[in-house]
Each structure stands twice: as C-alpha cells, then as structure tokens.
C-alpha cells in the first residue's frame, strides 16, 4: 500500500513538473513566435486585399492603408479585360476533372499495393516513387507531342488526362501508407461475412483513410489549380482554353501595369482555393494529427 502511494505521489509530481516545464518562462516567447508567424503569413494577403481597392498612386503613397478609392471597380475591370470569368470556369473544369480521375486511379491502386506482398508489388511501388525524380520541364516536349498526336493540343480535356499523371506518385504513396495501417483482421472479418473486394474498399478502407484522401485531394487541387507552365505552352492563351493562372499575366499588358487591377485579379484567383480549404480544413487537420500519433 505504501509502495502504491509512493508511486502515485511520484506520478503526480512528474506530471506537475511537466506542467511547470510547459508553462515555464519560454511559454510567452513561444506564443510570441506563433503570433509573429501568423502575422507574417497574413501580411501578404492583407496587402493584396487592400491593394485591390486602390489606384497605382494610392498603392505607392499609402501602401499599408486600408482605404482605397477604386473599390469594386478594379474587380470589374480585371474580370472584363482578362475574361476572368471564363478563365475561372476553365480552371475549375480542369481541376475538378483531373481531381476525380486522380482519385479513381489512386485509391484502387493504393488498396492493391497495400495488401499485396512480394517483389512485384514492391517494384510497382518504387516505380511510383520514381515519378518524383522526373522534372517537369523534361516532360514538356514529349507531352506536347503526345497532345498533338492525340488531337488534343490546346484543349482542356488533355489536361484532365495529363495532370493526374503528375499527381499519382505522391497520391498513391501517401494512400498506401495510410491503408497499410489498417489491421488485416478487419479485412479478414469482412471476407468471412461474404464481402467482395469492392465492398471492402468502399465500406472499410475508404472511411478509415478518409482524412488522408482529403489531404491528398487538397494537395492535388492546389497543384492543379496553380499549374502554369504546361497550361501556357500546351494550352495556349486563347480565351476559350486558358486557365486563371495564364489569364492573370495578361492584365499587366492590357492595363499598362495597373497594380490595383492586377491585385484584384489575384484575389479572384485565390477565392476558390480558400473556399476549398475552409470546407476541408478539419479533415486535413485530422490526417496530420493521425500521422503524428502513428509516428
């Protein structure tokens, strides 16, 4: 009994010492550093937002002042001169299509690799990993020739087929690691209950790996939405095909470097990104926390 009491006091004292360490003199400094980091992240966004409502003279005279005379006029000019409405639609069409195709290919592939064993599965997984070693510019010429041979040069549909190839290496590897963490006993129990392979994937693996699926979906969405190099060279600058990233630089020539209008165009391009992140932020945090706990 005395031994248990001593152990209890020892445990309490260790917890109290841990709390004292966490709440020690470095805690205010940690809070200050965290808030400073947040301010550094928000300052570019604040500058772009306030600049989007100003004229060039106001931007240079009062760069940090939130007051501007242009207001919504800069947004109207940006949308009119660069046809940002069509560009946003093109980007959304390409991004959503490529996102759906990526997940349709990556989820079954990750499930198969996570449950397979042997040299062949290891070899296939390493092939996916080799995708990180191929620089984007090295694939430009073969990709352009492929688009021409398929008759899809300067079309949006080509990017729906092409962009998943750039995202599959990272997507498959992350999903494989998440699915390998699922106990095999769950799959064996489902097989004994008569579940098919598709049912096991749909009702067991996908719900348990949903945070990771959302995480890779967000990463792929950002990469697809911000793609510029291939969409400029292969897609071209035609209004019917060009994405928001290709349309934005046209504002510098069309508006003679009106920085307020350019800032308004940047804000328009950022709205869908922040909207998607706001809707899926909780799932993304769950995936990061789950990965930290497992690690």
Characterize the structure shown.
- This protein has 295 residues and is mainly alpha-helical.
- It has a domain at 83-247: Orthogonal Bundle (MetI-like fold).
- Helices cover 78% and strands 0% of the residues.
- It has helices spanning 2-22, 26-51, 56-61, 73-82, 84-115, 119-130, 140-149, 156-180, 184-192, 197-208, 210-225, 229-235, 244-247, 250-254, 259-294.
- Helix 4 crosses helix 15 and helix 6 packs across helix 8 (156-180).
- It is globular, with a radius of gyration of 25 Å.
- Residues 1-12 have low confidence and may be disordered.
Itemize the secondary structure elements and their pairings:
Layout: H1 2-22, H2 26-51, H3 56-61, H4 73-82, H5 84-115, H6 119-130, H7 140-149, H8 156-180, H9 184-192, H10 197-208, H11 210-225, H12 229-235, H13 244-247, H14 250-254, H15 259-294
Helix pairs in contact: 4-15, 5-8, 5-11, 6-8, 8-11, 11-15
A few lines on this structure:
Helix content is 78%, strand content 0%. It has 295 residues and is mostly helical.
Mean pLDDT: 85
Task: State the name of the first-level CATH class of one domain.
Answer: Mainly Alpha
Q: Helix count?
A: 15
Question: In total, how many beta strands?
Answer: 0
How far apart are the first and last residues' alpha carbons, in Å?
A: 37 Å
Key structural traits:
single chain, 295 residues, MetI-like fold
């Amino acid at each position: 009994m005395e031994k248990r009491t001593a152990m209890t006091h020892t445990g309490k004292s260790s917890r109290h010492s841990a709390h004292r360490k966490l709440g020690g003199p470095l805690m205010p400094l940690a809070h200050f550093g965290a808030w400073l980091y947040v301010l550094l992240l928000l300052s570019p966004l604040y500058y772009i937002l306030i600049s989007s409502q100003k004229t060039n003279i106001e931007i240079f005279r009062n760069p940090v002042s939130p007051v501007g005379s242009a207001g919504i006029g800069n947004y109207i000019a940006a949308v009119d001169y660069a046809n940002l409405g069509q560009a946003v639609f093109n980007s959304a069409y390409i991004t959503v299509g490529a996102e759906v195709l990526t997940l349709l290919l990556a989820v079954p592939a990750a499930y198969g690799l996570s449950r397979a064993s042997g040299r062949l599965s290891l070899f296939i997984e390493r092939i996916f990993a080799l995708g990180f070693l191929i620089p984007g510019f090295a694939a430009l010429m073969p990709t352009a020739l492929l688009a021409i041979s398929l008759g899809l040069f300067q079309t949006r549909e080509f990017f729906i087929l092409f962009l998943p190839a750039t995202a599959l290496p990272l997507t498959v590897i992350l999903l494989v690691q998440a699915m390998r963490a699922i106990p095999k006993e769950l799959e064996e129990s489902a097989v004994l209950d008569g579940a098919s392979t598709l049912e096991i994937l749909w009702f067991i693996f996908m719900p348990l790996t949903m945070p990771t699926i959302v995480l890779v979906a967000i990463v792929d969405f950002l990469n697809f939405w911000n793609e510029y190099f291939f969409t400029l060279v292969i897609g071209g600058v035609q209004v019917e095909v060009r994405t928001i990233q290709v349309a934005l630089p046209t504002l510098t020539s069309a508006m003679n470097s009106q920085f307020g209008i350019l800032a308004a165009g940047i804000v328009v391009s950022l709205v869908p990104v922040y909207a998607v992140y706001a809707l899926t932020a909780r799932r993304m945090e769950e995936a990061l926390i789950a990965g930290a706990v497992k690690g």
